[in-house]
Amino acid sequence: MATMADESNPPRRGFRATWRRLILRTRAARRRLTRPVRRAVPKGLYARSLIIIITPVVLLQAVVAFIFMERVWQQVTAHLTARLVGDIAAIVDMLETYPQDAAFAEITRIADDRLGLNVTVLPPEPLPAAAPKPFFTPLDQVISREISEQIGKPFWIDTVGRSNLIEIRIKLDDHVLRVLARRSQTYAPNTALFIAGMVVTSVVLLAIAIVFLRNQIRPILTLTAAVDNFGKGRPVPDFAPRGAREVRQAAAAFHDMRERVERQIDQRTAMLAGVSHDLRTVLTRFRLQLALIEESADVAALKNDVDDMNRMLEGYLAFAGGNLGEDPVPTDVAALIDDLGEAGRVSGRDVRCSFSGDPIVRVRPQGFKRCIDNLIGNAARHGTHVVVAGRHADGQLTVTVDDNGPGIPFEEQEAVFKPFYRLDDARDRDQSGTGLGLPIARDIARSHGGDIALSDSPFGGLRVTVTVPA
Ligand SMILES: Nc1ncnc2c1ncn2[C@@H]1O[C@H](COP(=O)(O)OP(=O)(O)OP(=O)(O)O)[C@@H](O)[C@H]1O
Ligand SMILES: [Mg+2]
Description:
11 helices; binds adenosine-5'-triphosphate; alpha+beta; 5-stranded mixed β-sheet; disordered N terminus; binds magnesium ion; about 60% helix; about 475 residues; about 15% strand; rod-shaped
């Protein structure tokens, strides 16, 4: 029994795994196959919608045109050709019934007057060799067939040579009959008109479609821009939901979401600020009371703790007040970085700053300054050399802060972004720090729609990279 149970389980799992693998493989293959198509297809909603509208119109017109050409045009041509060849057959009959030369002139005149055909009776000379056909002409085939059926004599035709005339020669018993007919006598010439009409209607339809599409797509683009700005912490101007019902719903949902998020942030900020403020009042009272107590080791330690708590609260307030009330404005980031570097040098650190690209970027100046300042402060605390490099390119502002300190081990690189998280207390216990520098910096970067990442610096210490869409 045990073996049975053992055996019944694995195959099932094996089957599932195989099935999953098969599905994954099919998906990958499909993706590989459709990649060229996906690359060629335009990415924008506007272009895609146009294609969705144009393709059926063009296909429909092509099919209609094909059927029209194939059926109607060919039938009309066959009809006209049969009549023309019938007329020629009548002339041939007359020529054979009245084979005198005097009758030829009369027959030629009648053909010209009544049938619109230019007829000449030539001496019996051999027919010219078949003219080379530059391309396949269905007209030739139709005429040839009709002549063989209705007249049944050797003939020669030229439908290509002269522009609006076709020439037919028929070998009679002792003459050669040459007939010049107008091209319009053999087929319906209105194809160009038909195609032009088709193209014009397509263009008109397309123009109408573009106008309507623009009106439908504009609200989507407005919504996209609003969501994008909101994500980057930029002010979002109010806009009225417009367009199709679903787009209005999306816009309304975005408005609601924005309000909820803003309310939540306001609430959080107000609460943190309130708590910090209340605690600070109590701490101030503590400090006053400690000042009144006689100095001792215990009292000194208590005072130290109170100072620590005070500092933490300051940091917390800064964290909570993060980027309150500040709107992004075009700021000279290169100058901002230089100022911070200068301040660092004044306090005795080797801080080198550089910047490449357009220095004017839309950021919240106070918040961004605090962010970079926190990073330079950390680097200067842990290392002796600090390199700050800014780069503005491809719609992105990147600032890296490198130092030659001990760095942060990879497994701690995410944890240090937690509020109050400090690495290795022994390392910098003596240093004042609350563990809010990095969380505040990340908060600010994220409020700009960007982020902060840590990695190892080529200078031996930590590299902090701030990226902000610009
Ligand atoms: N450049 C750096 N090199 C090595 N370790 C660092 C560096 N920057 C930060 N750290 C480590 O990450 C921890 C968190 O840094 P964070 O800036 O958040 O707090 P802090 O510097 O200790 O205090 P605060 O910035 O609030 O005064 C620090 O305790 C420190 O151990
Ligand atoms: Mg710090």
